[in-house]
Amino acid sequence: MRFRNARSNSRLRHRLLLVVLAVAAFVVIAWVAYPPGYAAGPATTVNICGSSIDVRFEGETNGVSRADLLEWVHRAADAVCTYYGKFPVPHLRLDVRVRGGAGVHGGVTYPEGGGYINISLGADTTVAQLNDDWMLTHEMIHLAFPSVARKHHWIEEGISVYVEPIARVQAGQLSPERMWHDVVRDMPQGEPEGDDKGLDHTPTWGRTYWGGAMFCLVADVRIRQQTHNQEGLQDALRGILAAGGNITQDWDIERALAVGDKATGTTVLADLYHEMRDQPDPVDLAALWKQLGIERAANGSIQFDSSAPLADVRAAITRREAAGQSGQH
Ligand SMILES: [Zn+2]
Q1: 39 — alpha (psi -120 to 50), left (phi > 0) or beta?
Q2: Considering the entire predicted model, what is its pTM?
């Protein structure tokens, strides 16, 4: 998830009960809105594609060593560098806290200090769980897009949800079969439900995370169709980052999408935003998987059909792109 600025509602003053509720709400908002105190202690610096990550640990793990944890940080950063061609911010502060059950959980990314991620994992987390983790990559991807108004939160989460497995495939950390298996399984959660009013007005979990990811998927395919598969969402997102649009910057969503469109020589992002922002606009995912040549067998396994009309688009989405190759148009 990504930190949002919260604004308190000060109208609740007339009755004692409401005052109590307002105070309680304020406490909750203050707790959510401000980053927890930075972890104390010395930092270990991880250098990755020209940027530095200062990692601090709070608490001790039983099943994994500090070296294992630093390898996990390096792997997540490498996936992000692979996708974007650079790390999104020059310097990141990363606090890793040991708490809760085994596994990685509770990641939050903040713009403070040029980029700050706070993430937790259980003391009994295993190396296998670190190797399979997606959450730290998801958080680091949040660094690569400007902060937009609250009602557009879906674009921030959608990019992280959509890009995370692609970045890991491009970095050789995940197979395309496993990635598409999970995407085909999970993407329907982004479809609009009965009372949907469009992405800007339906802040449910499904529409925020998977509705945003569906926007990215449709945009990626359309950009590739319109550019003879020479450009993709990756080039648009690299263009936004190259124009300075990282998490420390507050941008209008239209500006971010226009900068992304300029990088691909299309108007796909602006057009799709106008389609999806104020109305349900469901996507025929079954037809899209068929066009992309992604077939799901009865046992759930994924087969690719290389003769499908958009098979080349599907292959290009997960193909590793050179660091400087972006915005050819
Ligand atoms: Zn997130």
Answers
A1: beta
A2: 0.90
